[in-house]
Design goal:
Blueprint: E1 2-7, H1 18-21, H2 26-48, E2 53-58, E3 75-78, E4 97-103, E5 123-128, E6 131-132, H3 135-145, E7 150-156, H4 157-163, E8 171-180, E9 183-186, H5 189-205, E10 219-225, H6 228-234, E11 241-242, E12 247-252, H7 255-269
Parallel strand pairs: 1-2, 1-4, 2-3, 4-7, 7-8
Antiparallel strand pairs: 5-6, 5-10, 8-9, 10-12, 11-12
């Protein structure tokens, strides 16, 4: 059994504000430990289920958040920002299952804790085949491109509601109940990590019940930016059409290619 783990930070146990996930603050240094411990819980659960190889992709911000010496030694780690597939760098057809740890809802969810898709500074909304998507849905579609199912997701309660709409059979661990954009009711991290470990084991034992998330192709992407200037730059890319003051549209042969193009837009918007 080979397990790919994509780790974000906003949906990690005890995280509630941008100060927790922004380098340079004392809170961030503490949250790095929380993030590493949540991922370790997923690794231990995978090992409990007999996983032979585990690869973790640090997918938040500058992608240098997990503490390498604290990470369980059974896992390999992808660390660093320059990745064509971003949070899904390293995924291919050689994996049996995917875990999303520390994920969150999209921007327009009222009680979505720190909600956004790819970047709150760059994107107001990203629509895949006419549907506004979170990072979880977009990345699940990327995994589906390689015929790999997402079997475990951890995050807040607003993400839990969203996930059930397109991944009904996935194991979901709710580590906090979101109330507002930067407010949540927390569960003690020792409890959430026990839940993540147990859910990871159950998820791998039940992989035959979960199918990859496959979307209609070619993928039609509409990216709505926070700034009109970014739309101007993005529309200069061949095959990308400007369809609104701050919105562009393009088609991609699959979700993996779509994500690569969105990563280019993210650089333009930064």
């Amino acid at each position: 059994m080979r397990v790919f783990i994509s780790a974000d930070m906003e949906g990690i146990s005890s995280v509630t504000g941008w100060y927790d996930v922004t380098p340079g603050t004392a809170e961030y240094e503490t949250a790095r430990v929380w993030m590493t411990d949540d991922v370790n819980a997923a690794i231990l659960g995978a090992l409990d289920a007999g996983a032979q190889r585990i690869l973790v992709n640090d997918g938040h911000g500058n992608h240098r958040n997990l503490i390498p010496e604290r990470l369980d030694a059974h896992a390999e780690l992808i660390r660093g920002y320059t990745k064509p597939l971003g949070m899904m760098e390293g995924i291919d057809g050689g994996w049996d299952a995917v875990f999303f740890i520390g994920y969150h809802a999209r921007l327009s969810v009222r009680d979505g804790l720190l909600g956004h898709t790819l970047s709150p500074e760059c994107f107001r909304d990203i629509r895949l085949n006419g549907r506004s998507v979170s990072e979880a849905e977009l990345n699940a579609a990327v995994a589906g491109t390689f015929d790999v199912p997402v079997v475990l997701i951890s995050g807040d309660s607003s993400l839990d509601r969203e996930i059930k709409g397109f991944l009904p059979a996935v194991q979901i661990v709710v580590v906090k109940t979101s109330l507002e954009y930067e407010t949540a009711v927390l569960v003690h991290p020792s409890i959430t990590r026990d839940r993540i470990r147990q859910a990871a084991r159950l998820a791998l034992e039940g992989t035959s019940n979960v199918t990859p998330y496959c979307v209609e192709t070619p993928c039609v992407i509409e990216a709505e930016f926070q700034e009109t200037a970014t739309a101007t730059l993005a529309s200069s890319v061949p095959t990308v059409a400007r369809v609104g003051a701050a919105t562009v549209r393009f088609e991609a042969p699959d979700a993996a290619v779509a994500l690569k193009i969105l990563k280019v837009f993210l650089r333009l918007g930064s």
